[in-house]
Amino acid sequence: IGQVYGQPSVLSIQSLLGILLAPIAAVIGVPWQDALQVGSLIGQKVVLNEFVAYSELVRVQGELTDKGRLIATYALCGFANFSSIAIQIGGIGGLAPERRADLARFGLRAVLGGTLATFMTATIAGVLGGL
Asked: Which residues lie below 8 Å from residue 101, measured CB to CB, with a gap of 6+?
């Protein structure tokens, strides 16, 4: 996106996800100096998958504080992403083909619920990690 506007290093999908999700990262306990980076990781996890996000976490782990790295590790640990909706429709839909419409209808809610569950775990890990 940034290359179109002449600023390739400033504007990217990762940076936009970081800006959008930095407040959520801060709410779950990530220090503000890490919030943009962790927000970007969370966005990559939801939009792509957790493997891509963990690969990026390995690359940037030296730039994060210990608490930011701990919370990011737990926040990325989950199967709640857009690609998992298709996997669930294909896998469970094969067992109950008449329920595929229900699976598709509840897919986004399942992603939201799974994401909130991992955020709660990450928040608790951040609180306990500071003791």
From this structure: none
